[in-house]
Amino acid sequence: MSEGPDQIDLSRVAVHTITCKPLSLRDLCEGLSARGFGGVSVWREAIDEAGGTAEAKAIVDGAGLRVPALVRGGFFVSADPEERATAIDENRRLLDQAAELGAEMVVIVPGSSSDVPLAEGREHVTRGLEGVLNHAENVGVTLALEPLHPMYAGDRSCVNSLAQGREICERLTGGRIGVAVDVYHVWWDPDLEREIAALGKAGLICAFHACDWLSDTQNRLTDRGLMGDGVIDVCGIRGMVERAGFDGDVEVEVIGERYWAGDQMAYLDQIAERCRSAT
After folding, report:
1. Is this structure's pTM higher than 0.90?
2. In this structure, is residue 169 part of a structural domain?
3. Would residue 132 count as lying in a domain?
4. Does residue 246 fall inside a structural domain?
5. What angle do CA 178, 108, 247 make, to 5 degrees?
6. What tens digit of pLDDT does each residue of 114-149 get?
7. Is 153 inside any structural domain?
8. pLDDT, tens digit (0-9, with 9 covering 90-100), for 50-64
9. Which domain holds residue 173?
């Protein structure tokens, strides 16, 4: 295992709303604030449940939390040009929503389609990002391109490695764009440390997402693990991104049904402990 960084301060940790899905945004924010967490990354569904963007912002601000990210945009890949144009329009609206919420970035899930070869899909992603890049600059929100694990290549993401994400971002120089490093999606990469260093050298690491890969994973979408429950060297990877120059929030993003089934306030206590001991 790689040498890890110092123990993290919870004020530098943000928890994604999906991590504690059963909680309302208000209850989650109050729970985070009471435990000393610094932020909350907000999924669009949580905004709808709160009654809208203004209401969600009031809840977050009232708890004294910041919003690293609004999740999620992207999905630029389609064989239909009209659908690709619609995706660009939708992502512009999402950037407006992020700015209203006070989010630093929008997480971009690239998209994929069985009708589009992977290399062509990556071109769709590049053109889609290019179509919203000026708007991102205008509203002051960063586009955080998130490469997903190769198991999602057929239906969710044609961008499956940090190298592919970096190459796309480097083609779109000079704008508010970077790569989100999610340990769930990249831990397997034999070039991981080298690619993180390359991203850092290019100034392209804009987010770090923490969770774990369970050895008995039952569902590729909703069975992520809490840090320390699986096989990922989360501390080691955090050390890599910090040595590469990243000093932003650690975002806890655990999409896990087995954790949703339990007491969510006790789960927040467990998250806090694992941030200190396994992140």
Report:
1. yes
2. yes
3. yes
4. yes
5. 40
6. 999 999 999 999 999 999 999 999 999 999 999 999
7. yes
8. 999 999 999 999 999
9. 10-278
